[in-house]
User: Fold this.
Amino acid sequence: YTGDRLHEKRDVTRPRSGVRAYRCGGTRLPENRIALIEGAMSAKAVLEQAHIYNTTLTVFISALLVYSIGREMPVRRRGRPIVLSVPINLRQYFDSATVRNFFSTMNVPYDSRGGVPDLAAVIGILSEGFKDELTESRLAGKLDRFMRLSQNPLVRIMPLPLKNLFLKIGARHADRRISAVISNIGRVEMPREFEDSIRQFSACVGGRYIKLTLGTYRDRLVVSFTSPFRETNVQRRFFRLLSDMGIDIEISSNL
Assistant:
């Protein structure tokens, strides 16, 4: 399945309709600056905690993030879901010869109307959400919609400035259905001759809301938070949860 050929019709599951998600607010930093907070810790220690809950590293970290957001959410805002946007590497699911970025995203919701009773409950709900989204029919449906759009005759002849305008409008509309973004870049491998000279890797991305990126190098797991806001309640609660599990964390920040 490549992004360079016409899409093929197939029987796919239609996506669930989206609703406006809860979004953490706060005092924006001046000059459009981004707050960065990183926590470095033992990957083995975090995986041991994830395995206690019989889940993966990505789901475990996602649940910690949702739990932290939910605990900091005002009661009057609990009518809106907490929705995580998670990038998906499609090469793991479809054969592709394209050299372009071949990925999609999935939105995993948590109904916050009942609050966040405990971490185990959040993990269970998110685990089911990941399983529902990471199916071939759901992913194929997203690819087909993108291909239909790219092959639309009106889109192909549309002037670039007009395309850019519609893309901005579409992106802002999609953002309303996202509370935060989490991206696991996976395990970083380096040539053996460089391994001992490198302590850790980290990655961060900016945006209009909280974004979390995690990556592992040897036994060094780095979790990076970026946010346009001065407030750090969610980040503090997130790292405190890990610390209460007995995990040693080194915190660094540009604040």
